[in-house]
Design a protein that fits this description.
Blueprint: H1 2-22, H2 32-40, H3 55-64, H4 104-109, H5 114-132, H6 149-160, H7 166-192, H8 234-250, H9 254-272, H10 278-301, H11 318-322, H12 361-382, H13 399-410, H14 416-427, E1 434-435, E2 438-439, H15 440-449, H16 465-470, H17 472-481, E3 489-491, E4 498-500, H18 503-526, H19 529-556, H20 558-566, H21 576-584, H22 586-608, H23 617-642, H24 651-679, H25 695-703, H26 717-723, H27 732-770, H28 776-814, H29 818-824, E5 825-830, E6 854-859
Antiparallel strand pairs: 1-2, 3-4, 5-6
Domain NAA35-like N-terminal: 45-209
Protein name: N-alpha-acetyltransferase 35, NatC auxiliary subunit
Region (Disordered): 1-22, 304-333
Length: 861
Amino acid sequence: MEQREEEEEELVKKKLRDEKESGKNSSWVDLEPLLLECSLQMRSGELIHQKSFGLFEAMSAVEIMDPKMDCGCVTGGGGFGETSSLKEEDENEDVRGVRLLKRDDDIIAALTSSKEMKVVVDMLIARENSWHVGNALPPTVFSCLYLKEEALKKLSSLSLSSSHAWPMRAFEALMTTTLPFVGLIKKMVEIGDIFEEEDFNPHDYGLKVPLPEWMQRKESGAGVTAADVLDGDACVAKYEEVLKEGKDAYGDSELYRRICLRFALYRAFKRIADVPTEENGKRIKRDFEEASATARRILEEEDIKGISSTNSDSNSNRGEINGGGDGDDTKDDEEHAMFDASACAHALGNSPPRVVELFTVKQSYEYYLKLLDELDVVIERLYDSAAATTTRTHLELSSDDFFRKCRDITDRDFLALSRSVAAYVSTVGGSTDSHLGVDSVDLCLRSVFAQVPEKVRVDDSEQKLSSFQRAPFEYVASEIKKGNYNAVTVTCEDTGAQTDGDPIEILATFKDECQRSCSFLSRAYFASPSRRRRKLRRCLDELSHLQVACSHVDALGVASLFLKKNIKNGNDAIDEEKVHEFCARAFQLWASRIVADAQFDILKVGFQCELYKSYELASVYWYMDNLVVHALNADQYIYEAFNCNTEEVTKKSMDTYLEANIFRVRSNAAQCVLVALEKVGLIKMPKRTFTLATAEARFFQRFAHFQANLDPVPLFWDDYEKHVRGYEKRPAEILLRLAHGQLQPLIEMLSQQIESLQKKMNNKKNEATAAADDAEDQKANENIASLRAMQCLASLTATKTKCARLSATCKLLGTLAEDDLRGTWTVDVLQPPFSSSSSSSSHEEFKDYDVFFALSASRKA
């Protein structure tokens, strides 16, 4: 066998030699002279001599055997080094990359015109945005020679000279403010703490990246806080001075536009880093609008197709951001002399070399538009400044509302920087232990008391409901200090001894657990899907501690004492016995719902990460169905306690009930279909030699971490056997017909919901047309309500379509005998694709992340 392989290999080599000698294959190029000339410049133990490409890097590249890692051999740029040119006039030069102007005087002298300055600024912005998508700082931002400390000093001195015109001062302002802007973004990403290095690399590698002196508004000596975080900012003062000076003479110039764009972006990010307020949110929206308009004007009015940056083959998301642009836009041009990718490569040390792919200038401005659209969604969702009539006010915001907003952002395919900003705003918001400027424990306390319907609360004139809404924790602490609490017995986990609990200490422990749990949970939502699943699993341990703290707070009687003061006596709509039961476990009930939501999200993210095999789907749907039932039972428990004598239910609860029941019907139908296909052998089962071959072992692997929490009660294999495996006793055709019968009433109900929603939208549209003189705020509120109605309509329509297709397939297959179905039909279980095929980033875009599969059935040939 070996001799035969050697003979075949020799024949192939001979054929290639013959083709080369005869010239039949024109693609052959003789590299021997080039390699010989390169080897003359090499030192011992090196492939090609680069300042940061020594023996360690050379051997790493050989060991990895990946040409993308071998940046020393990359030509045409794309690595830490640049193009290695071996023309005749360079025979006596050491091969160290592109020949650059190293002296500071020569660097400054290269600025011959405002057009040249504009080109440098565009290429610098392209490199900065390339850093945003996972590349390191040394080969991107710090490749610009104008950012060297000596060059910046020279630029500053020239800009102060009266002999130099406004373009030089504008260029100097852009260069000197680049690194502070990079430092601001770097700091926000690090505090958000959800990044992965392949998505965003915040490390500065020891280079001088100035971090912001302050992230929130300054306080004067008298304790007065500044009205705007931009007050006293040196970069802002420089931008304003330059823009004011050049407005008349250069207001329509290309360089002026770039100053305006950078200033708007700096203002937006600086204000995002500040404490979130409604007024701050409005300012940020205006900054976004100015930056988007400027970037769009540059793309539409200027010819930037011919300007490109060095790029090479890589697995970056350049194509996603580019959106499938013209092929000419990504064509490599000659590298600019003022950019040296190896200038700061020494900072990378002995780390394995990486190929760097840079945005073209056009892609860079398209990236800005995508980023601004995504950040616009983040601010709109998290700042609560969009509409007072459609969202809760800032004082009423609860953790339930907050996590709902987080999930809404999570369901969008955002860039790493956008998700990092969302994590920063949600987990910091002005201090290390607050959400959106609101303490985490206040959000949690409001979540508990927000479950009480508004109609059973008393007027604020007699009670202290407004005090509680402003500062719930302070209100509860003051009540405890007055002695308004129940005695609590605490059991020591180590010794088992029981002691009288200190109410202040119990409340402090509850506060700590709320802050820790909420912080971890919000960060988990904004992480990438794979990391989000791991973070959510770790959150379950933290939430188990929160549940214990909640049980102690329930024992203090905080909820019952508060409700007695704030609910009218003798209200016929209240069942006193059930209200008392609710008060006794109000915080535990809230915590169990948070845990159930986290567990549901873990299973949902599993679909995004494509973790589940077809034979596992039945158990996953079954567990998700039980989590939905738990949430429904909790809601029903509250409604019965406070609405026992009325059928009126809030719209929010009706929407929740409708969504949950839709999920339950689809889940039951899906389980019937999967069991039927497994019975006839149309679902491929794992080999028995596999470690987790048994169904029980696979079940334990998927759901073992849920057992860390006692509420909701964890489910085990015996429960699954009893409920799902019971379907195996029925024939496959009966199960398929059962699934069809379950889906038909759901399809009819969805049709009614869609028709009703369309009528409401048409009526709203007619009313809006009639009221042409409405206030601007009211129109904005109506637009938001209309957008949400359109998203709801799209979701219902998509659900109806999928249910109808599955029902029709089940009806067809249900008419076949098992032998006929097994022998003559091919059925594929198609899990939902979670990756978006569209590159559009509009904040009005709706994406349907449905976890239910579809069936593809075809007769065998």
